[in-house]
Amino acid sequence: MSDAYTPRRDDRFTCGLWCTAYGGREVFGREVRPALDPIENIRGLAKVGCYGFNFHDDDLVPFGAPLSERDEIVKRAKAAMRDEGIVNAMVTCNMFEHPVFKDGALTSNDVRIRAYALQKAMRAIDLGAELGAKVYVMWGGREGLEVEASKDPRESIKRYREGVEFLGHYILENNYGMRVAMEPKPNEPRGDIFLASVGHILGFIATLDRTVQPIVGVNPEIQHSRMAGLNTVHELGQALEAGKLFHLDLGAQKPTRYDQDLRFGSEDMKETFFIVHLLESTWWDGTRAFDVKPYRQDSADEVWDLVRGCIRSYLILRERAKRFDADAEIQQLLQALQVTDGELGALLKWSPQNAKALKERRFDPDDLARRRLNYQRLDQLVFELLAGVR
Ligand code: GLT
Ligand code: MN
Ligand code: MN
User: Fold this and answer.
1) 172-221 pLDDT, tens per residue?
2) Choice from 15, 17, 18, 54 to test ligand 1 binding pocket (greatest atom count within 8 A of CB)
3) CATH superfamily label, 9-319
4) φ/ψ (deg, to 5) at 318
């Protein structure tokens, strides 16, 4: 049965293979669900309405598999993609699971490990290129520390830069047409992870070499932003304004806890609404990617309900975003907030003459402070719209 909240291909919803394959293993308990075959996983995601899937090298090809097995799996994956009409949108490299990465990959103090990490990453990029991935995500889960004395933070960032520049050049050299999206996270699995927020990554990108810089951007994740107690709408807004939002991981999270990866929409509906509103009202031609985990309590078939729920909640909020834009009272309140004056506005652009004119201008701050903003009404209207009574 289809309704207004049935996904279409051009909605471009995607999901990570690691999400639906998550068996429930965590620090206090082992798997609660049987392993999910990656090819079945790709088919399953297509059936619940995904346009694409995202994967780590090791999600598809088991770690250390010989080349013949890799090629065979790629063949089967391509056949499944063709049959089901699903694409590969994003590839990433697992540089956190194997014990070799226990103290970091690209920022390890051991040059042999940094070299091995680059080799593994290049192979992951090749794999993604073969399947058509447009984005290479770099989540440096192990790039951090618990023992502050163990790493010089300046040296670690230099090493990180060397690694990102190397991989950026590799992508350009091969004409893979891929862009790199770096994913920040404040902590977990490390006590502290380098490049903890969107702002850290934007600052880091500004220091990259000029050849690679245009193809490197950010992959914010709602959960990671909320773990740090930040405002995700503002993080996304700044990345968008900088032209650096290359991917984003949608999910839900209670603030300042471990990475919960809850179903999109299941926490903080208002912030989630403004995320959807921002994406829908801006230039955004990327995918709508979910990075979520089933509950440990879910049975094997319920992992598909997780993805269905994410998609449906996004589409419901998108419909609410349209209503917000069409709501006469809300729009009138928003318009009234903007005070414009062409002559004064022109003075705000720097020039020595404008500086002189501004210094001489007379203002009445008490009068300016008296303006009524109507924020009680505005926020109440947003609540009523989201609660479905408007
Ligand atoms: C891991 C992490 C995610 C990253 C994935 C990509 S793996 O599940 O928690 O946020 O996006 O490496
Ligand atoms: Mn993520
Ligand atoms: Mn997460």
Assistant:
1) 999 999 999 999 999 999 999 999 999 999 999 999 999 999 999 999 99
2) 18
3) Divalent-metal-dependent TIM barrel enzymes (3.20.20.150)
4) -65, -40
Crossing angle of the two packed helices 269-280 and 232-241, in degrees rounded to 10: 10
Residue closest via CA to ligand 1's atom 4 equals: 139
What residues line ligand 1, using a CB cutoff of 6 Å? 18, 56, 92, 137, 139, 183, 221, 249, 259, 291
| Class of residue 287 by CB neighbours under 10 A (exposed 0-12, middle 13-18, buried 19+) | buried
Cis preceding linkage at 189, omega within 30? yes
Domain coordinates in residue numbering, the chain: 9-319, 328-387
Query: Which atom, in ligand 1's list, is nearest to the CA of 259?
Result: 9
Q: Which residues are catalytic?
A: 56, 59
For the whole prediction, is pTM greater than 0.90?
Answer: yes
